[in-house]
Each structure stands twice: as structure tokens, then as C-alpha cells.
């Protein structure tokens, strides 16, 4: 009944246009990227119980109600700090699920993984809607945090090896296109969520449960369309007329062999790349979390033309600078998205190692400059520094799959990428913890709010220095780690790979060239229309 999901039935035949695959990946990443925008629900959820009882102020929990009691309580509203754990769980389970099921994805194919991701991500929101309705936070944790997090991980890595195999000539650009969608998901999802909550809100409801239902259903449909559009190339396929350049052929950092995922934990280069990603993400994710309050507290009244410190502003003025900060956050999101495509594409020319070297050196200099531009009151330099920093944060995510393919080969790069994403899970905890606790510590020493971020910037510089050193030590992988020809042949057999495109079943018969061109326009139009 579900044979169409099998990997062997997704192999494209001759005439298939590879440019149909990036829109399929984007369709999934634009949906799961809403994980970045879930904070739009926190404030409404923090007073949902009060509103259901006709009250305007949140019903606060008593001092004896701790975090675990909040999981089950129906007598008080959830704190925003409690709700924020769902955001943390997203990225913990993203890394864990990608690591656990990455090998399964390689053998079963991206279509099956994409379908599971759609059911988990959209279905998790439906479960969360029930949690909101019954005011049971543990149900929301199970729905969006755990089940949704699994969908997040499978959806994130599902297109990686597929795109790398379709675009051996442009590995960085291909993965950059897909992962760019993850950065843009919140820009689409957050306004949609706000509009739906406003529409569903009433005197006794904040509209979150209904919004979860609608968005969950939309995401399931949209992601299923993307998953069903996945195709993989036959083993002997390469772009017409393409041969690797002499520079690529002689580049010792780009292997022609493949490492088996089961060996990856023991390879030093894997752990070096793991540290490279973790340090880049830890620094960047810390900035994302504090960018808005930092802008407001450092520049305060100057954002609206007043010579006033933050604690001297009245409620109306605080609202005004908050609006400016919201615009700043949106600008950072644009650079985060654009950087994923720009830097990943640039890495095809510069190489992955040099690209990450630029991230760490330029990023370190920019972080180091922030306290000076803050103290000087130079808003333009401050904003420019953070925009470039966020572009490199996004670029790091988009460049690393191609880095892995260069070092460890393409056969199991999706599974290896899944293992690597545990670095993201770690960074999702490390970065915000360092930034938030350093801020609290600086405040406890009596420093004014405009200066509490200076030490944090220098700590983030130290993280980037560690990443730079790890990146410098990355060398070509030793020959004994790679699969032999017999092992590779067996892995391809287990992965249901066929050698010739003519062996494709009727289910995946390739379209003619003219039809394929039309499909490309329609596919990109489908993804573009969502924006």
C-alpha cells in the first residue's frame, strides 16, 4: 500500500530536472523553521488560564509550585521561563533524533523520512493544542517538544544527502538553498500565528489552541507535498557535461571515498568539526537571544531621539524602543537567512575550511568591537556588526553539510550530519546559559544595564578562538577509516540504490524535458507563494 514511499521508487530516471529537488526541501524547511518563532505563543499562553476565567491578569503560581508541579497544574498560569523549555527541547530532540535515525534515513530515503517528519511536526502541534485546551503543560511538552522535536530533526536532515548527490558541482549552494528555508520559517510562521490568534481570540480564549490546530494541519499538508516531491539520483548520475575541476580533483580535503556512519564517533576530524559547529552556534545563538534587550538597554532613549537611559524611560517610551528593537530582530533574521545561501555558495569557491576561518576571525573581531561601538553610542556600527555576525551564524549551518561531504564522502553524509547535530543541541543549552547567567552576574555586581554585555562579548570571542583552533587542526581523513569497495557495494545494496536510471519503476518514471521545465516553475512558485 505504501510502496511509493520506498527508496527504490524515488530514484529519478533520465530527463529528471534536479532543480525540482530544492523546492521540495524548502517546503519542509519553511515549515519546521517555525521552531524559531514559537516565542510568539509565550505571552498569550502565560495568561491563557486567566483569560478562560474572564480575568485580565495572569494567575500566578504560589511559591511552592515548582517546575515539575507546573507540568500538571490546572490552577495557575505557566511562567514564560517554563514555556521557554519547549524551545530548548526543540533543539535537543532535533540533534538526538537526527543522530539516532540518520542511518535509517539514508537506507529508507528522504521521502519516507519527510513523511514521518510531517506527521510528527504537524501532529505534535495538534497534540499541543489539546494540551492548551486542558491546560496540561506535559501534553505540550510531549506534543511539540518531543514528538515535534523528532519531526524537526528528521525534516532538517532529510534533504541533505539528496541535495549533495544532485549537486556535486555546487554542494554548498544546494544545502544553502534548503537550510535557508529553516531560517525563514519563523518569518512566515510568526505573522501567520499572530494573525490566527487574533482571529480566534475571544473573551474566554487567547486563541492559541485553535491556532495550533490550523497551523498543524497546514504544516502536515505542505510538508507531505514536499516529501512526495523528493527524488534521488541513480548511483552513476552526474550533471550533464560536468567533470570535477583539476583543483577539486587534487584537493586532499575533498575525498572520493566514503566513511560508514558507524565509525564516525572514533574519527578525530568528526569531533573537530563538531567543536567548530558548536562554537559557531553557541556564540550566534547567544546573540540571537539577547539582541533585542541589548539594543534597548545599551542605546535606550537614543533609539527614539531622547538623551535618556533605559531606567529613565516611561511606559510609552519603552513601547516605542521595543518596536525599534523588533525591527532590529527582523533585520537580523534576514541576514541569518541570506547568510545561509551566501556563505554556503561562497564556500564552493573558497573551500569549507577557509570559509569557517573567515567566520571565526571576522566574527571574533566583530564581537570584540561591540563594547567599543556601544560605549561610543555608534548605532550604525553596532547594528552592522550584529548583521554580519548573524549572517555567519546561518552560514555555518548551511556550509557544514558540504564540509562533511568533502571529508567523509557522500554515501552516508545525511547520517553523519545527523550525528553532528548533537553539537547544535549542546550549543542550544551552552550559548543561552552563558549569556543569560553572565548578564545576571554583571547586574548583581551593580553594573548599569548598558555595560552588562561587555564581558559576555569577550567570552564569545573566546568561543570563536576555540573554534578557529579546531578548524585549523582539521586534516584529510586517513585511508583506513573509509569503506572498502566491497563494504560500499554492500551499503548501496542495503540502501536500495540502483546503478542505472533505466531501472526505475513505473511509479517514478521521469518526465519529459518540457514537462520537467514546467514542473520546475510550478514547484518554485508553490514554495514562493507561501512567503
Annotation field: number of helices: 20
Written as H for each helix and E for each strand, in order along the chain, the element string is: HHHHHHHHHHHHHHHHHHHH
Under CATH, the topology of the largest domain can be stated as Growth Hormone, Chain: A
Assigned CATH superfamily of the largest domain: MFS general substrate transporter like domains
Query: Which residues form runs of ≥5 with pLDDT under 50?
Result: 499-515
Task: Please tell me the overall pLDDT.
Answer: 85
| CATH class descriptor name of the largest domain | Mainly Alpha
What does this structure look like?
The protein is mostly helical and 531 residues long. The chain folds into two domains: 22-52 and 61-232, MFS general substrate transporter like domains (Growth Hormone, Chain: A); 250-485, MFS general substrate transporter like domains (Growth Hormone, Chain: A), CATH 1.20.1250.20. 68% of the residues lie in helices and 0% in strands. The chain has 20 helices and no strands. Helix 6 (110-134) packs antiparallel against helix 7 (137-157), helix 8 packs across helix 9 and helix 12 (268-299) runs antiparallel to helix 15. The longest helix has 36 residues, at 315-350. Mean pLDDT is 85; it is low at 499-515.
Amino acid at each position: 500500500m505504501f510502496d511509493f514511499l520506498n527508496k527504490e521508487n524515488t530514484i529519478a530516471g533520465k530527463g529528471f530536472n534536479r532543480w525540482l529537488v530544492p523546492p521540495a526541501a524548502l517546503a519542509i524547511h519553511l515549515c519546521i523553521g517555525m521552531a524559531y518563532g514559537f516565542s510568539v505563543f509565550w505571552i498569550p499562553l502565560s495568561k491563557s488560564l486567566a483569560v478562560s476565567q474572564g480575568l485580565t491578569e495572569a494567575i500566578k503560581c504560589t511559591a511552592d509550585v515548582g517546575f515539575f508541579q507546573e507540568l500538571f497544574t490546572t490552577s495557575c498560569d505557566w511562567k514564560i521561563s517554563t514555556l521557554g523549555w519547549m524551545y530548548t527541547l526543540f533543539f535537543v530532540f532535533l540533534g538526538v533524533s537526527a543522530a539516532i535515525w540518520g542511518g535509517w534515513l539514508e537506507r529508507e530515503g528522504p521521502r519516507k523520512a519527510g513523511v514521518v517528519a510531517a506527521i510528527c511536526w504537524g501532529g505534535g502541534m495538534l497534540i499541543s493544542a489539546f494540551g492548551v485546551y486542558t491546560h496540561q503543560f506535559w501534553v505540550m511538552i510531549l506534543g511539540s517538544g518531543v514528538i515535534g522535536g523528532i519531526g524537526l530533526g528528521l525534516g532538517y536532515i532529510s534533504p541533505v544527502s539528496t541535495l549533495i548527490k544532485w549537486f556535486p558541482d555546487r554542494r554548498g549552494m544546494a544545502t544553502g538553498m534548503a537550510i535557508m528555508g529553516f531560517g525563514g520559517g519563523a518569518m512566515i510562521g510568526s505573522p501567520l500565528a499572530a494573525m490566527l490568534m487574533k482571529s480566534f481570540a475571544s473573551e474566554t480564549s487567547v486563541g492559541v489552541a485553535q491556532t495550533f490546530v490550523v497551523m498543524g494541519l497546514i504544516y502536515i499538508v505542505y510538508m507531505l507535498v514536499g516529501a512526495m516531491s523528493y527524488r534521488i539520483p541513480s548511483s552513476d548520475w552526474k550533471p550533464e557535461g560536468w567533470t570535477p575541476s583539476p583543483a577539486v580533483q587534487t584537493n586532499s580535503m575533498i575525498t572520493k571515498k566514503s566513511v560508514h556512519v558507524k565509525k564516525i564517533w572514533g574519527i578525530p576530524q568528526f569531533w573537530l568539526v563538531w567543536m567548530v559547529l558548536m562554537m559557531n552556534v553557541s556564540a550566534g545563538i547567544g546573540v540571537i537571544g539577547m539582541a533585542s534587550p541589548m539594543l534597548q538597554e545599551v542605546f535606550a532613549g537614543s533609539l527614539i531621539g531622547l538623551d535618556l537611559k533605559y531606567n529613565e524611560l516611561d511606559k510609552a517610551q519603552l513601547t516605542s524602543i521595543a518596536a525599534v528593537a523588533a525591527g532590529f530582530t527582523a533585520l537580523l533574521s534576514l541576514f541569518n537567512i541570506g547568510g545561509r545561501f551566501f556563505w554556503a555558495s561562497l564556500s564552493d569557491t573558497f573551500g569549507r575550511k577557509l570559509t569557517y576561518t573567515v567566520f571565526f576571525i571576522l566574527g571574533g573581531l566583530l564581537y570584540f568591537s561591540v563594547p567599543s561601538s556601544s560605549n561610543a553610542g555608534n548605532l550604525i556600527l553596532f547594528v552592522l556588526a550584529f548583521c554580519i555576525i548573524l549572517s555567519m551564524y546561518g552560514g555555518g549551518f548551511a556550509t557544514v553539510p558540504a564540509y562533511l561531504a568533502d571529508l567523509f564522502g557522500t554515501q552516508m553524509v545525511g547520517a553523519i550530519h545527523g550525528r553532528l547535530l548533537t553539537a547544535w543541541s549542546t550549543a542550544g543549552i551552552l550559548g543561552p546559559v552563558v549569556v543569560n547567567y553572565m548578564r545576571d552576574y554583571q547586574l548583581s555586581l551593580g553594573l548599569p544595564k548598558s555595560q552588562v554585555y561587555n564581558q559576555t562579548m569577550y567570552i564569545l570571542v573566546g568561543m570563536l578562538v576555540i573554534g578557529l583552533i579546531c578548524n585549523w587542526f582539521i586534516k584529510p581523513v586517513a585511508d583506513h577509516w573509509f569503506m572498502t569497495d566491497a563494504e560500499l557495494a554492500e551499503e548501496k545494496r542495503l540502501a536500495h540504490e540502483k546503478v542505472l536510471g533505466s531501472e526505475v519503476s513505473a511509479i517514478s518514471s521521469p518526465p519529459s524535458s518540457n514537462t520537467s521545465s514546467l514542473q520546475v516553475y510550478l514547484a518554485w512558485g508553490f514554495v514562493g507563494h507561501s512567503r
